[in-house]
Protein 1
Amino acid sequence: MKVVRIVSPELDNNTYIVVDRYAAMIDPSTNKGKVLEAVKKYKPVYVILTHAHFDHTQALHTIKQLSNAKIVAHRLEGVDADMFVEDRERISLGDVGLKVLHTPGHTKGSICLYEQTTKSLFSGDTLFPNGVFGRVDLPGGSLEDMIKSLKRLSELDAEILYPGHGKPVGNARKHALAALKAAQHLIT
């Protein structure tokens, strides 16, 4: 499995292309030029939205016009998708599969994607490095849901964290445990 990262400098947010026999793009963000170059180069079969906030979907309309990729999202995200996924579904890219984890908290339909072979976690805006988690004060956000989602992520056998913003890091489980502790602290 190959992972290509495209950074959108305005908000330091990431678009990832996961390449195996087929390719998937995760969160087509605000760096439209680079995102569209990647669509032409890797020809993704899927464009997966971890959630539908503008900074993770800005290039989506253009991609739909230029590509046959299926737009994938969770049903609770309320976006115009070609394919809705549920918790624990597997999106196959050949030998590699991305397992869908429904992780509400930042939005009702937020998802993370887990690749078991490489122990990679694509966390969208649910989990960031160093004990940071996504905002819960926007429409559809919930601290209680976020705590449940972070607990679930902290129990994964995940090594590499590919967050929606910032640089990827190792020891994903450690970062999830720190974020869980920080979120729980806000309740008490």
Protein 2
Amino acid sequence: MPEEGRYEKLPRPESIQALQRYLSSNPVVAKTELSKPQLLIVRRTDKPDLTIFLTNVYIVGEADVYEIFAIHRELNAIVTMSAWNGYTNKAKELCRARGVGLFEFKELLGAVYHTGEKFLDYEAPDERERKARNQL
């Protein structure tokens, strides 16, 4: 059955469920709850809760970030959900300037352990390795 663009921005339900399953198995996560179709609340043990906007935008850019911020001001993070998705450096910088993390699905799984600058600047181990190789 054709999707007719339904999942162009809205994450697939199975992707949201997978993210919740992965996060729930994390020792720093007490509970996750979907408060709205694209807002995930992550209750962490011994760390502040996170309010995360979930999107399926292929490449999150500045315009997408402004659109999300216009509707949701209380965010700690924006996550693009598909394994093929990503974001621009400008979008990452814009989010960081507002104290909001911008992550791919897999990056959030590591960032959830952190707060403050370490949360905002989190990079997955494979990305850190790639950057280290490029500096050689």
Protein 3
Amino acid sequence: MAELLQDLLGPLVCDAAHTWYLKPEGPNVLVSPADETPSPPCDARADEADVALGIERVNEATTLGLRSVLSSWAGLRTFAPDRVPVVGKDPRRSGLFWLAGQGGYGIQTAPAVARCLAGLVAGTGLPPDVTALGVSEAQLSPARFAT
């Protein structure tokens, strides 16, 4: 199965409705039901029903035939009210910078938003390849929520 995953799947695969994703992890595969179950801050634990749901969704959409779980984990997904990552200097606290609200896309967005934050902390602004996509500091800034 490791060869199949590496040959067919690439770094990350998800469905168009974002109801599941999978990512090759060596000879295995990381699977998520991509759920957004509200939860207060806590020490997140994988729910057996969610683990089964993730496998079921992947198996319905692929020919992988996943049957067993080596280990499971859970995490809390954070979202800003507008569902856009929060990256930049806090407007109220000197020296505090934010990098939060990546939702379920931390695996995909971490390299880019980290580069954005590094430029903002260094005072050089967003990287040119990011601004070329039409992304501005104001769109990411925590100041957009200040009242």
Protein 4
Amino acid sequence: MLSLRRKTHLDLPTKNIGLISDTHIPSRANKIPLRVFEIFQNVDFIIHAGDLVELRVIDELEKIAPVLAVHGNMDKTEIREKLPKINMLKVYDWKIGVIHDAGTLSANKTLRVVQENKFNAFVYGHTHRSSIKWEKDVLFINPGSPTNPLPPFITKPTVAILKIDKEKIQPKIIVL
């Protein structure tokens, strides 16, 4: 469990968390699009929801802010050994869970994981399609893919931002 407790940010009323997934570098793109760095330039933390394919993705993102990541189904053994399947970040009293493929858990098991861990938000990837869904008081969010959006629907490259203060979490999908 990581906690957002950098002294320089303790007095700020709002924390900004960048969400990214399914970068697939270098198999489907050579590098993270520059627009991602522009969008994330003022974030306090970044969550990567898996399918990095190479660990250098974390190194690149850490030039902006600290990164919490999980491995995905396309990540090789090296990444699977370094990154967990599920992880968590706490901001103020909000608990944000992250997994690559929420579909690997049954709907009931996903809800059980969310409830047992008392997650207020659950970040996932895998589908390459952005999504925001509130279920009761829990936010389920998929930032999509900045490098490889997938059909069948017409989709564009996306990332997401969570604006978090002591009172609320506000999600936003951003088209690159």
